[in-house]
Amino acid sequence: MFGLKHTLSYSLVLLALNFIQAQPINQHGEFTKVDDMLLTSAEIEKIKKAMSDISKRTCVTFRETFHPTEPQVTIQRKYDSCVAHVGYQNGTQILNLAVDCMASGRIKHELLHALGFVHMHCDPRRDNYVKILEENIIEGQEYNFEKYPATEITDLGLEYDYGSIMHYSTTEFTKNGLPTMIPLQPGVRIGQLDGLSPKDFQKIARVYCQKKNNNNNAI
């Protein structure tokens, strides 16, 4: 979904103004990042592979920068968590990858946060697709299941995506091993981290690639 308030969107997208205008993350048309020295060489290669997987099927590109004043995403390991600022922050923003965050799908999930995408189950329509079981959620983590107001986001013309890499699993933030969320459609899988879904790729294209394609006279 696409933000209507300078930084908001949904499963999409908490985006700054230049994102809303379908611009890349900086004036060079590239998404920039720096690597923290606490990441091993093998882990950095894994991050680069995740970036490459996204770039191969979208117009988003990634490049390394060592200029501290350039808008950039700093990929680091300073906290025991997988977390990223959502969308363009008009300066340096953080993407933190703990040791347990190094699966390819988890890296891609956090990269999509940095690109402006929020969790699928925060879609304001989500009650038509999943049921939240608040009694099983760890106290203090309920905010992770809050919906965005429909006035602040747009779905980019796409339907709810159970298969999105941005969708929580059934037991995310469980305090007792029981489900915190169940899909209302029988037989569907949620919370997969195998890779971006077809709709995830479509969302990236609709946010970032339309203007770039127009500038290149592409069909």
Automatic annotation (TrEMBL):
Cofactor note: Binds 1 zinc ion per subunit.
Binding site for Zn(2+): H109, H113, H119
Enzyme Commission code: 3.4.24.-
Keywords assigned by UniProt, alphabetized: Hydrolase, Metal-binding, Metalloprotease, Protease, Signal, Zinc
Keyword Plastid annotated: no
Transmembrane segments: none
GO biological process: proteolysis
PANTHER family associated with the record: DISCOIDIN, CUB, EGF, LAMININ , AND ZINC METALLOPROTEASE DOMAIN CONTAINING (PTHR10127), METALLOENDOPEPTIDASE (PTHR10127:SF780)
Name this protein carries in UniProt: Metalloendopeptidase
Species of origin: Drosophila busckii
